[in-house]
């Protein structure tokens, strides 16, 4: 009876989180039955923890596939119960939730890679690399939408940055010049977005899609007319090589993942820190949040709402354009048709999943990068799971977030609402 009364006193978010962990508990039970007891008795799974010349803490870990699935399923069950208990006590359950998810994933890997080798550190490094453009894109969306402007044009900004950086690096044979041009290309698309959305009050969602189509069409045309027939001149640029940070780059596991990367990845770290600090610790951040939530109140204290929005949308374009450079000079050096492959839309999904917060968006981008890399790794080692199922994971996660199972997801109140003195419209 007391438990029923306690459940009634829960907030909507607590009830959703409780149901989410009940679902995770059921999944763990299924994993215990299907993976733990269903694995071949003699099969073993090998996890690799070294990549190159980093210090070795553990080289490989060999565990019985059935034993691993059984063990991690039990851990997931216990962690889910702990999380439900903490929620009932109205305490934070983030760590227990993370343990539940990690245990479920490790149990799945023990089953899926039975008798095979999983390069765990390499897989995590690859996940970070796949998440790089998503992080840049989500930070761009964050800057725009926290200011009250919906940025559907992230895809176009990324693609413009990729095209401009690849072409300039090819013509000059200098990747640094390509890196300088990429943000300008993204800002150019943002200039169009800001001009039509803020000055002329065009519907921001439709405008974003139009800009994406414009960039896709323009880059496809130039790709066919210039980059293919004159590939050696226009589309064979250099790319950045990895830079290992002394000492910390040698740390086991985390060293090769985070501190043996290209310049663009290190710039990503810096931009995330700057945006996180600036948004919550500076006058600019306070004003940005104000115009995104209550533009009328911001206007009443002397803040030029549309001017700040215009400026922030341009900054957002700089960020996403820089992220686009990762596709070319950050990896292959050359541009290919529509090479962003929907990364801008997945970045928007990461922003929603992260509840319009910097670290939430980064965490979601890393999750999506991991899901993308996981399906590739499992395909390479020959696991008989259709890759299409793994590709669905980011979108399923987004649906879960939007449905509210992980808590209330609310965009800034004035997001997408045009503002003019005398009232919004």
Structural commentary:
The chain is mainly alpha-helical and 425 residues long. The chain folds into two domains: 114 residues, no CATH class; 297 residues, Orthogonal Bundle (ABC transporter involved in vitamin B12 uptake, BtuC), CATH 1.10.3470. Helix 5 runs antiparallel to helix 16, helix 7 packs antiparallel against helix 14 and helix 15 packs across helix 16.
Q: Total number of helical segments?
A: 18
CATH topology of the largest domain: ABC transporter involved in vitamin B12 uptake, BtuC
Could you name the ranges where pLDDT drops below 50 across 5 or more consecutive residues? 1-7
Distance between the termini: 50 Å
Extended strand count: 7
Overall helicity: 55-70%
Q: What portion of the residues fall into strands of 2 or more residues?
A: under 5%
How do the strands line up in the largest sheet?
2-1-3
Number of domains: 2
* H-E order: HHEEHHEHHHHHEHEHHHHHHHHEE
- Mean of all residue-level pLDDT scores: 88
Q: Please give the largest β-sheet.
A: 3 strands, mixed
**Per CATH, which architecture of the largest domain?**
Orthogonal Bundle
**3D shape:** globular
If you compute it from the alpha carbons, what radius of gyration comes out, rounded to the nearest whole angstrom? 23 Å
CATH class of the largest domain: Mainly Alpha
Structural class: mainly alpha
